[in-house]
Amino acid sequence: MVEKSNRIYLLEEAGVASALLKLGIPTMVGMLISALYNAIDAYFVGGLGMSQMGAVSVVFPIVQIIIGLGMMFGAGASSYISRLLGKGANEQADKTASTSLFSGLLVGAIIIIGIMVFLDPVLTALGSTETILPYARAYAKIYVTGSIINVFTVMMNNLLTAQGATKFTMKAMLTGSIANVILDPIMIYGMDLGIEGAAIATVISLCINMALYIGYIAKKKGVLRFSVRNIAPSKTIYAEVLKIGIPVLLFQLLASTAMGSINTAAKPYGDFAVAAMGAVIRIMTVVTYVVFGFLKGFQPFAGYNYGAKKYKRLKKSIRLCMIWSTVFCIVAAIVLFIFADPIVSLFGTDVEMAGIAAKALRLNAVLFITFGFQMVYASLYLAIGKSLVGSVLSLSRQGIFFFPLVLVLPHVMGLTGVVWVQPMADLLTTILTIVFAVRINHTLSTEIEMGED
After folding, report:
1. DSSP state letters, 5-19
2. pTM of the predicted model as reported, rounded to 2 decimal places
3. Contacts of 326 (CB under 8 A, 6+ apart)
4. What 3-state class would DSSP assign to 233?
5. Considering all CA atoms of the chain, what is the largest pairwise distance in Å, rounded to the nearest integer?
6. Least buried of 46, 50, 406, 414, by fewest C-beta within 10 Å?
7. How far is CA 167 from the centre of its chain?
8. Contact 81, 223 (CB under 8 A)
9. How many CB atoms lie within 10 A of CB 244?
10. DSSP assignment of 156-201, as one string?
């Protein structure tokens, strides 16, 4: 009960800056460690050869799609649960959490089976060359099959974040990611399992992560109560979860498809081009996950205070998140731009690969300065239940603008066009975000003037 009241106090009454830091830093650190694992994983696999590095890049979008299923139910439920807790509807929050967890695992299992049945065609469509395919197949058979655990851990991460249990989610992610980093070199080189060893290390680490979440449920910690008895599928629950969850899934699907399309666009230029773009994606994932992680803490805060009609508190949180995320993005962009060459060299010493990767990294870094601004407002709209606008903003960067660009630029500019796709999509997304940022800030100011805070 004390733990419960402390978390509600954090969302409702604690100082805004303090609450955002306590909610955001744990998820930010956890996601940063997770992203660093992915980069380190690629580093160890890169030592096996260019084709193996390309294989990891090709499989990565598949895993992101599976994670997207967990995020669909987890993030969708998280937004709804935050608003329910803000209104004091705890029983409905419990039913939403349990129903979403069960539904996500069921759908995840079905999708994974489908992917495994058509594995080779999927890998080929995602940019696998003849030399990359054998390694990609070996890696995917283990990693993709074990990703049902990933669905569970992603959902639990979102559901616990909704009730403010961000410290525990950070510990769980840290533990799993550190285990993965330790196991990678042991499995890959120590036990001479090669790329299959990287997949085994990942699955073992996911099992450790899952065990921690199961222990949390068993000890009945936190505000939410997970139980088979609380599984209560209803039109209301699914409507509320999916209206936020589907845009999140579409975002993840588009991000995965974007990765695959970049691999496909780079494919005609050889394994080095696929490996180069894969390395850049991993590197940019590290810095984007910092912003994503922090704003995962912001979302329950925004959803709760919007539901409680505490508009001044919400508006202050938006301003602080804008300042903090933008400062980080500027610093990260400067570091990536200046140190692009030594950073990409960690993923391979091939001259052609390193040259393309460094150029792409610098271009991505320049437009990254606007990423925090984009994500603050995309997260805000989704958190307060305005799914249409939230969907448009979330899907613009790696969907609405990305795909027309990836279809046109490579044909016009060759490999240079492949490199320019993401930066141009970022620029257009920033312009669109400005329009909706002005709109929501005007709406909140009006609510405050009407005295509804």
Report:
1. HHHHHHHHTS-HHHH
2. 0.69
3. 369, 372, 373
4. coil
5. 68
6. 414
7. 18
8. no
9. 27
10. HHHHHHHTT-HHHHHHHHHHHHHHHHHHHHIIIIIS--HHHHHHHH
